[in-house]
Specification:
single chain; 5-stranded antiparallel sheet; mainly beta; disordered N terminus; globular; Neuraminidase; 4-stranded antiparallel sheet; 1 helix; about 375 residues
């Protein structure tokens, strides 16, 4: 028994032993030399990331656990207090985010698939961090989005400067949900920071619609980002076989799924829906064919890479790269670049650090960072 105890203790120590900043890739993009290095690694899929202090990165893992990573040493420690999650298929513990005015001890926001009667419902919640434990856990919205599938939960979180929170919900693998305002599936939702429905949400006066809905007609939006400079809300979402989309979100608008799409059916070369356009349904700012399978989205506004200011960055799962899209002053996508293709990693999560570096999580369990390649 003593040997088993020592072995378990030794393995646990190995799991949190800090890793050195191993350089994996060097490159240059738009005249910006960069390096990519490993910060930490661990078991499972690190899904969401949020900085809660300059060198403290909170990381959610889809299976349901949370770790706090010291980005200087790579040291990880477990955080208790996470809720039970429906960790099946694409469901589990999903995003984590903090508001722009966050300070230590403030609210930390999470999305996850909550187990409800044997199914998973995408849920928005918040809690505070007290030492190594989440406390004051509050469910803000358990969405009406359950289905008997284990796919298309969304879900990512964004904040604006006016005190509102946005989060995404996938269509749950049930295509008609995309056009059904009576449930939350296939939508972008908007709430106050304490979970109330804002009076100016576009459907608050309708008895046939969920009042939390900000936009609808989405398939599986796994990236959302608010640009504080341009006041634009961006979403990136999975299409079927082809047809991933970047959309500029406007309140009350219909983004078409599954009536219009640039994708094909998985079972054959047949277009999804009735075509690629229809009056009253929005066109994407950009679509990808073949699909890159986007898992995240940020608007870069840091100082470390000035030539990337205002660019969109998305992590690609299927095509395993970091996707950079240049947006012009009119909100049009005018250039695309694919970085880190040789890394061979499904890039899941993205977050910008206080110094303007880009942190990436991968489905292999790693947390990486992309930072300037300073001359020695």
């Amino acid at each position: 028994m003593r040997f088993c105890y020592l072995l378990v203790s030794w393995l646990a120590l190995l799991a949190v032993t800090p890793t050195s900043a191993q350089v994996l890739v060097t490159g240059n993009s738009a005249g910006q030399p960069y390096i990519v290095e490993q910060v930490s690694s661990g078991p499972g899929v690190p899904w969401g990331m949020a900085f809660i202090a300059p060198h403290q990165l909170l990381v959610t893992r889809r299976a349901g656990d949370i770790v706090l990573v010291d980005t200087q040493s790579g040291q990880q420690r477990s955080i208790a207090g996470a809720p039970p999650v429906y960790a099946s298929g694409q469901g589990g513990l999903l995003d984590v985010a903090v508001a722009p005015d966050f300070s230590p001890g403030g609210w930390i926001y999470f999305t996850y698939s909550k187990p409800v009667d044997g199914q998973g419902a995408t849920t928005l919640a918040r809690a505070r961090l007290d030492s190594d434990r989440l406390v004051q856990w509050q469910e803000l919205l358990v969405t009406r989005s359950r289905s008997d599938t284990s796919r298309h939960f969304g879900s990512r979180i964004a904040f604006d400067e006016a005190g509102f929170i946005f989060f995404t919900v996938g269509d749950r693998g049930v295509r008609p949900n995309g056009q059904d305002l009576a449930n939350h599936a296939g939508t972008v939702l908007r709430l106050t920071l304490d979970g109330q429905v804002p009076a100016d949400n576009p459907f608050t006066g309708r008895s046939d619609a969920r009042h939390e809905i900000w936009s609808y007609g989405h398939r599986n939006p796994q990236g959302i980002a608010y640009d504080f400079s341009s006041k634009r809300l961006w979403v990136i979402e999975h299409g079927p076989r082809g047809g991933d989309e970047i959309n500029l979100i406007q309140p009350g608008n219909n983004y078409g799924w599954p009536v219009i799409s640039y994708g094909k059916e998985y079972w054959g070369p047949i277009a999804v829906g009735e075509g690629t356009a229809r009056p009253g349904m929005e066109q994407p700012v950009k679509y990808y064919d073949p699909s890159i399978a986007p898992g995240s989205l940020i608007v870069y506004r840091g100082k470390a890479f000035p030539k990337w200011q205002g660019n969109l960055f998305a992590g690609a799962l299927k095509l395993q790269h970091l996707n950079r899209v240049v947006i012009d002053g009119q909100g049009r996508a005018v250039e695309e670049e694919r970085l880190l293709e040789g890394l061979g990693e499904r890039i899941r999560g993205l977050v910008e650090s206080p110094e303007g570096w880009i942190y990436l999580s991968t489905d292999s369990g790693r947390v990486l960072r992309l930072r300037p390649d300073e001359p020695s």
